[in-house]
Amino acid sequence: MIDTILIANRGEIACRVIETARKMGMRCVAVHSDVDANAKHVAMADVAVCIGEAAPAQSYLRGDRIIAAAQKTGAQLIHPGYGFLSENPDFVDQVEEAGLTFVGPSAKAIRAMGLKDAAKKLMQEAGVPVVPGYMGEDQDPGHLEVEAQAIGYPVLIKAVAGGGGKGMRLVERPEDFADALVSAQSEARTAFGNDHVLIEKYISKPRHIEVQVFGDGTQAVHLFERDCSLQRRHQKVIEEAPAPDMPKAVRDAMGAAAVRAAEAIGYKGAGTVEFIVDGSQGLREDGFWFMEMNTRLQVEHPVSELITGVDLVEWQIRVACGEPLPAQQSDLSINGHAFEARLYAEDVPAGFLPATGRLTHLQFPADLRADSGVRAGDEISPNYDPMIAKLIVHGPTRAVALRQLSKGLRDTEVAGTVTNLSFLGALAEHEGFGRGDVDTGLIARDLDALVTVPQSMGQARAMAALVASGLMGEMGAETGFSLWDGLLRTIWIEEAGERNEIKLQMMGADRCLIMDGEQKVGAVRTASGWTFDGQKAPNHAQTGNVITIFADYGRSFHVVDLLDQADQSAVDATLTLAPMPGRVVSVHVSSGQEVAEGDRLVVLEAMKMEHTMVAGRAGRIAELLVDAGDQVEAGAPLVRLEDEETA
Questions:
Q1: What is the Cβ-side half-sphere exposure of residue 624, based on CA atoms within 13 angstroms?
Q2: Looking at the annotation, which residues are catalytic?
Q3: In 3-state terms, what secondary structure has residue 157?
Q4: Cβ of 494: how many Cβ atoms within 10 Å?
Q5: The whole model's pTM is what?
Q6: Cβ atoms within 10 Å of 33's Cβ, excluding its own
Q7: pLDDT value of residue 474
């Protein structure tokens, strides 16, 4: 009897799989790296096996160790989650050779979709529309013009050897093609020494819409579509299901195409067929094209679950155990609307840099589904993706669900690290997104407004000062008054580098006047708690000298000890510091070398991304303080320039 499943992953998705597997009465085995020994997914499992060091290459990407752990613990199934080995066909082969069952598609199906060009050819043969284009060797202008006409205007002429927009021309009318071709070829020849071009369909308002499919190796069904157009640098931020303004005819056509794609490769399990969609003239049956197929469970699968009432992980496990397809297409229907927002530890104003830190406080509202792999007290590690949670809502209509999302984001409480919570909130309240007028360029167009840090609220600062004074708790008649302490006290607090002097004047046991420059805030304690200028005090958390007020997505204040400040020396302006913990991938300068402002110095790897440290000014390298391969902490010095006076 199949009764034990090993989850070859970590974090949120490992917890998600364990939740369903336990409901199905299965025994769950977790694997973990040494730094994940106390992780949430480990605590949830029945058995846990350490498979190596923190670096994924030494743990979560070691298929041999994962298989050995399954054999050691008696697991018959291996669920890969997403990421890591989930789309590695060689791992699937190894699992099956070991006599175990991989919860997912066959290695053959994964390989079929692994190469984009081959996948597109396969999809064409299966009758799935692909983006029209010409990449042939015949560069005769007349032939290229015929190809452009066949593709349909507008088209893009692009240099084959191109980059940076050189050798690229948008052509909207047939009569403009010849001149645009000459211009593009000339620019390409000058820039790259190669004037060959390709032609592809230009999609003026692209939307990213994907279809959730599920197969049993022979037959497949679709669980309707998700709109994932709200992206930043091709990374999904907020997803929804179903897609707004989706006509039934287009939904049926897109779903049928996705099913043909899945059945063409004998797909087994949960997968996603991604389409690029032209939204410039509304969604049309001839306006979507295959991009790729993800042969695994997607991060955003919960929105499909909520509108269909299907537990996709349960379906995965049942089919892997040999059951037939759990439902036919006629059994599936859409109920309401769902959104998912990805909450990350990242510094949005600093360019969305991944962040680390210990989560000193983490609380989600009860009416929000929060799929999370961390708890309060857990560390956000530089070794892995910095996701804190997926925040998911479901309502009867899109408008209701969007209001639920907006409120849920405002009621989410996180302290201990910076997050993208306010950015998500700004998106949820974006006027265009509220109308459903969304495309993949929305965030880039409105980025400045979306990442603007709001001005500090007087009530939030006032509350932080009261917390710092120790006056937020139970109070008696003597609170705030003593023979050795005056009625007026001063607190210094900082927010985002801005220091404020706050004066507190006790007016009685339950009243305080808080003076913030010219602004005055009255604080009154009632039977139900404190109010500030009549507004109920939000929740707060304090760790050491950091106070987080959970208003406006969370405001962090640092209580300043002026004596400590006086003892601290200024930061050495000659040093380039690591903005986060990470590994030094490469060093691009040498001692004594002259550099200009903006020159690349060191490349750091953190959170599965590379970050380039550049020179803040021109100068000469005085000292290299790290080597390639070194692990560094946030704030660690990397390179020192000579003093400007010395140079």
A1: 15
A2: 296
A3: strand
A4: 15
A5: 0.83
A6: 22
A7: 58
